[in-house]
Amino acid sequence: MTESPLRVGIFVFDGVEALDVVGPWEVLASWARQSPLRPDVLTFSADGAGVRCAKGLGLVPDTSAEQVGRLTVLVHPGGHGTRHLMVDPSHLAWVRSMRARTPLMTSVCTGSLVFAAAGLLTGRPATTHHEHLDALASADRSVLVDTDARFVDDGDVVTSAGVSAGIDMALHLVARLESRATARLVRRGIQYDPAPPV
């Protein structure tokens, strides 16, 4: 079986926010099931071992960072675990190495703080969770922080705001990589039509 030319990898780590992972994964996996492009969507951790999400959910990834291979899109979620990752030289070096070989780098929530710490957002527009906008500005003073957007598409880097905004970003990725019509079909299929009851 030949590998799909479209490969999306969602990085997971201890302290990741569960919906930052599962929201985009649901969108992208739903897309993969119906798209003639047959995108490969997988999760991976640094060493391939399971991780514990910020609120306790356990996740078993598909593979490791070493084994994941070439990706078209990297999704870097946020969560409390990013506080460690954004000051971890080896993780930041890995992010930079992924930037060098991955056409589209994306983040959810405080994943953008890691991108900023790695130098990926220098002089670029970006966003993050509304409670961490100041932290994004502090991580790199040159970042053009967007305080209102659900996601910011700056070509080869896409950042999204907090938690559920990762779903919006993932739907945008489907529209960008295939079509708006396909993104609408995916959105309808997962019944994502935000109308908060409160």
List the defining traits of the structure above.
11 strands, two-stranded antiparallel ribbon, alpha/beta, 7 helices, seven-stranded mixed β-sheet, 36% helix, 198 residues
Please, could you describe this protein's structure?
The structure is a single chain. With 198 residues, this protein is an alpha/beta fold. It has a single domain (7-188), classed as Class I glutamine amidotransferase (GATase) domain (Rossmann fold). The protein has helices spanning 18-34, 82-85, 89-101, 111-117, 133-139, 165-177, 180-189, and strands spanning 7-11, 40-45, 51-52, 58-59, 63-64, 73-76, 104-107, 125-126, 144-145, 151-153, 157-160. A hairpin with a 5-residue loop joins strand 3 and strand 4 (58-59). The N and C termini lie far apart (48 Å). The mean pLDDT is 96. This is DJ-1/PfpI family protein.
Q: Could you give the order of the helices and strands?
A: EHEEEEEHHEHEHEEEHH
CATH architecture: 3-Layer(aba) Sandwich
Helix fraction by DSSP (H/I, runs of at least 4): 25-40%
| Strand order across the largest sheet | 5-2-1-6-7-11-10
Q: Count the beta strands.
A: 11
pLDDT below 50 for ≥5 consecutive residues: which ranges?
Answer: none
What is the CATH class?
Alpha Beta
Which overall shape is indicated by the principal axes computed on the Cα atoms? Answer: globular
Largest sheet: 7 strands, mixed
Mean pLDDT across residues = 96
Count of alpha/pi helices? 7
Cα(first) to Cα(last) distance is: 48 Å
CATH superfamily: Class I glutamine amidotransferase (GATase) domain
The CATH topology comes to Rossmann fold
Rg estimate, integer Å: 16 Å
Whole-number tally of structural domains:
1
Instruction: Indicate the structural class.
Output: alpha/beta
Strand content is: 15-25%
